[in-house]
Fold:
Amino acid sequence: MANVTLNVNGEARTASVPPETTLLKLLRDNFNLTGAKLGCDVGDCGACTVIVDGKPVNACLMLAGQADGRDVLTIEGLATLDGLHPIQKAFEDNASLQCGFCGPGIILSAKALLDENPAPTAQQIRDALAGNLCRCTGYTKIIEAVQDAARALRGEPADKAA
Amino acid sequence: MKRRGRGIACMWYPIGFTVSANPSAAVVKINEDGTATLLTGTVETGQGSLTILGQIAAEELGIATDDVHVVSADTDATPMDTGAIASRTTYVTGNATRLAAEKAKLILFEVAAPMLGVKPDQIEARDRKIQVKGYPQRNLAIGEVANHAQVVMGQPPIGAASFNPATVALDPETGQGKPFSTYVYATQIAEVDVDDETGEVEVLRIVAAHDCGTAINPMLVEGQIEGGISMGIGFALQEEILFDDAGRQINPNLTNYIMPTSLDMPEIEVDIVKSFDPTGPFGAKGVGEPTAVPTAAAILNAIRDAVGVRITSLPATPEKVLAAIKAKRAQQPKRIAAG
Structure:
């Protein structure tokens, strides 16, 4: 067994797990954080995307042991009692998600992008989301929501025409 | 070099099959606080059906969509629905929902008529009020009427209804008849670049004009069209289930079953055609599946326009497109010689 201690959504969490346990399995099974989804389990679909030390990663491809001592942000860490995170709000306002299975991963990929680049072009958004598959939406309203969220996070009014 | 082409494709698609029973049922209950509860057997899979049905009930009752509490997809508690299939929910379940809401509303009109001193057919439901047509200042709050209906008149305002598009048998000899209740229509135009040295196709733009009857929720209609186009692009250029000689799928995963990513999606322009179908709820028909129908044909026509080759098996992979371009080039000198 491997003892891991990591900071998840601002809170220190500890578990003792078999060494082959992935970060995704640790989050879902040990910490009951089921927002990160198990899709393909081989790093193709991006449904398990979480942010580790500021970078988006496929939690199915990272071992729990590799996350030891690091900061992990999952979709559960975004909204507060006061309301949704601006990216979540923009996704809601634009009806960006349909079945929603890809949503937690896409929103976290978008957050990692906007944390590094507060004013991305549409092409930069497409590049940042290229590892997150969505079968329902055609990505169109997702890209529009990320643009809206970027404006909101920069403190600018929403511009539906852009 | 890259060669640009444009292709167009049109389609019609049937809504509400009639060759066999195709019912949906709904129950609408108006509550004492002016809200309403809708029971429906249909299933929300992300397409927004429950929002649409809530909007239909709200429109009929003159209340806000937020006032409608939708209870769905529980076979213990909700009425029968044929299913979230065949692009039928807005049309068939929507009609059942509107009819159930109308029945509940008419109970309120019966109860409100003596309270307002008019006949029931002189009353309308608007802005969360039961009011006299043409004299909106003579009104009662819906919740007040609902409460009066229950505790004074003993007539709880509950409506139950079903809708089954009239079944019409097809003539067994001619095959003629009316297999569907109504139809939707669409045209999509694709603009592509085809690299004539590699066969690679890039979709640059899709313009999609869809008739779905009256769009009850245009934002959700756009989402359906954009999603359908992404499936159509995968169908046209990328997606193929491959089998070995023993019939085993050799690409049963997303590593080599290639579907569109955010990088494969073109600019999409959606045009919702203004239309009204008198048989649909508030003029609506449907939009789901039809959105994916014309996309591949438009893209393949655009490839033909760009490089002059007709691809007749999907997906139009770079290998297929390049082979067709080479075959066409090989034929051209012969034609010149023959002429």
